[in-house]
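User: My collaborator sent over this chain with a note saying "see what the structure looks like." That's all I know about it. Can you take a look?
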Amino acid sequence: MPVVEEESPPPPPPGRFTRLFDLALRVAGGLVSLLGGVLAALLGLLFSTVRVGGQLVGVSVPVTIAAAIALSWFAYATVGRKWAVALPALPWFVLMSVAAVRSDEGDLLVAGDNWVGLGMITAGAMTFAVMAFRQILGPPQRRHDG
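Assistant: Without extra context I'll predict from the sequence alone. Here is the result:
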């Protein structure tokens, strides 16, 4: 009875079709992550003005935190690269930056006296930063080829 288990031969490398399909899925996941970042920013801005009984409620803060966590996880899981957390974060940061600047017509989406909007920007930025930090320092993702 042998003490050492017999090694099985390594699996054959994936074919060209499999590699192209994998690449297409990763690109699609990256595009969905980008669009998700845009949608998360728009929803956060929309919910930052929600009032109950004339008082601002902070519904956009937990929505933004949950969206940042979900999108960061999704981007990493679909693209398979640690830098993928930037895909939803970049459009989110750009839209938040644009929303905080007054337009030529005087429009301003996130005013300095809106505590919910400022809390949403702070919470979203911190959540994306923490998720990126965790991705960078975490173990590499296992690939399941085959």
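A starting point for your reply to your collaborator: The helical segments are 16-47, 60-79, 86-99, 115-137.
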